[in-house]
Amino acid sequence: MENTINSLKVYMAYFKIKFLNEIQYKVAAIAGALTQFAWGFMYIMLYTAFLKEGTSDYSISQMSTYIWLNQAFFALFNMWSIDKEILEQCRIGTVSMELVKPISLYNIWHSRTLGSKAAKALLRSIPILLICSMPFFGIYKISLPASLSAFIFSIITLVLSVGITLAYCMLMYIVVMKTVSSQGIRTAFDLVYDFCSGGLFPIPFMPDNVIKVLKFTPFYYTQNVSSNIYNGYISGNREIIKIIIIQVVWLVLMTWIGKRIMKRQIRKIEVNGG
User: Fold this and answer.
1) Is pTM, for the whole model, over 0.85?
2) Where exactly are the structural domains of the chain?
3) CA-CA 20 to 30 A from 153: which of 78, 98, 237, 267?
4) DSSP letter assigned to residue 235
């Protein structure tokens, strides 16, 4: 029990160090928030045209809320706001220095990535959530949650969504350990995640057959569900509880797979120079 508590303190220290380091870059955060505003406006103009053609049963208010929430929490759900130092460690071989420590490499990387994403999301989300909730945005503003229960469930699913995303990031790190350059791997992982999670194109706009396929993947149960529960597109306690159970299953399964693969990877790891 004492060893577990000590290990948790170590992982919290890794999280805190990375969080405090990333939160110093306030100018970069402002630039990032402005970028999210620009993309948000472009998405809203594009998808408003789709809605006027009757391509989805989404309302403009639901669509706008979905887009602004995704832009606000963009840093939590993309493959570029990760801990790039980990990728560099894999490239130059200094990851071997982490292996001599008597703690889990998987948990170290997990804590550092969470710290990096949390800091970037905090700095970017606050201005977007505040400004885009203003009345002058009209029907294009972030609406109030569909209900109190919808708000609570959206928070729960958001937390689980971040867990699934982190597990996916860990799988990416593990694959990068076998390569010299991470660029191609990151791009591939990012494209798959963005499309299948509704980051590039809202899932309610997709054909029914595509949605049915996506429901068999973990990506469907990330940013898509938390935003759509908040705006009321996904409703009904039974349906939402089912989604939460599926999220937990995917989170446990992906974490277990990641740890198993990393354990094997570490046994035969090769770094530049030997």
Assistant:
1) yes
2) 2-267
3) 78
4) -
